[in-house]
Amino acid sequence: MTGDVAGGSTGARRPYVDRPVTDLEGARRAARETAEHWDLPEPTLLRRGMNAIFATDDHVLRVGMPTAPATASIELARVLAEWSIRIPRPARDDVAVHGPFSVTCWERIVPTGEPVDWVAVGTMVNAVHRLDPAELPDTYPAPSPVTFPWWNFEAMLDDVGDDIDDRARAGLDATIERHRGWHRFEERVPCHGDVHPGNVLMAADGPVLLDWDLLCIAAPGWDHAPLMTISERWGGIEGLYEAFATGYGHSFRGDPEVEGYAELRLVAATLLRLRAARHDPGARDEAERRLAYWRGDPDAPTWSAQ
Length: 306
What we know:
Elements: H1 24-37, E1 44-48, E2 52-56, E3 59-64, H2 71-82, E4 96-98, E5 101-107, H3 118-129, H4 153-160, H5 166-178, E6 189-191, E7 200-203, E8 206-209, E9 216-218, H6 225-228, H7 230-234, H8 240-248, H9 256-276, H10 283-294
Antiparallel strand pairs: 1-2, 2-3, 3-5, 4-5, 6-9, 7-8
Helix pairs in contact: 3-8, 4-9, 5-9, 5-10, 9-10
């Protein structure tokens, strides 16, 4: 057990987490041993993605492979709380390290079961965008999204291209080409980087914004883009983005640059799901659902975030 970084560095050109947890058994061992060391109940897996999230009664253990010391996430949480941005609160100041994994302990948010107040989420994201980047912890990476590996579409297509049929590849290529200048941000602000329903919980005092692993410096529309396709492509609630934009104070509907971010996020989501299918056979069905959209299938099903 130690508070040092697990096999990473504070390299500013990578997001805080950019590698998924593929060794689930290793993550389970890390969570179990950490819970025992901290005298917490046996942890139960809630979900796995870029991190493996485990519940232990009133606490949540986040197990991941950050690119910076995991204590930086605790420092960031405290800065954001000072700005009344509702986030999970750290339950401990120390970090446990097991091999490549860092484990941090957080309060467990109890959802009310009520619909998320997306107007309030938009207001919170507006507050994030008004932060001075200099106020963010020096230890927490906040790169440009240009550095995110899954936005290197040429490399991603080289990697998974053999799994894509010609019609779907044509649709993907056309979208990438149409928005080739996506990274020329005229305005740059701190962005959460991944605002979507899976990263918001409705608590008693309002919505809580989770998962700050993709904090970045980008155009304000970067945080709008994921929600602009949520109803049509992901089966989300109608009017969700409009409510968010109301709280934010501005809608980017019709803005060609932000509409471009939204389309390219769909490209990235498809290529990531194809890559995930290599170690998760269950991901293949979802990858096929996404490829149907790029083939131009008028009956293409909506997508699942899994």
